[in-house]
Write a structure and sequence with these properties.
Layout (H helix, E strand, L loop, with lengths): L2 E4 L19 H11 L4 E4 L4 H14 L9
Parallel strand pairs: 1-2
Length: 71
């Protein structure tokens, strides 16, 4: 895996919510990425500025922006 598109949802459809705004277990997901494939890069794939801001806030809180390069 070389690239991810990151967004959240509630498991019913592809909602493109901000990370942490749906039901996905982001702490587990981000730790897995950090441990197993730290060289991967990612795109925040959200539908609004508010969702993007939520995604960046979660990534910064978990300290994972470095795993995905600079923004």
């Amino acid at each position: 895996i070389r690239h991810f598109h990151l967004h959240d949802n509630h498991g019913e459809r592809d909602e493109h919510l901000g990370i942490g705004q749906g039901d996905l277990p982001w702490e587990s997901i981000l730790r897995f990425i950090e441990e197993k494939i730290p060289q991967v890069d990612a795109t925040i794939e959200n539908t609004s500025r508010q969702a993007c801001a939520a995604s960046f806030a979660v990534l910064e809180r978990f300290g994972d922006l470095g795993a995905f390069g600079r923004y």
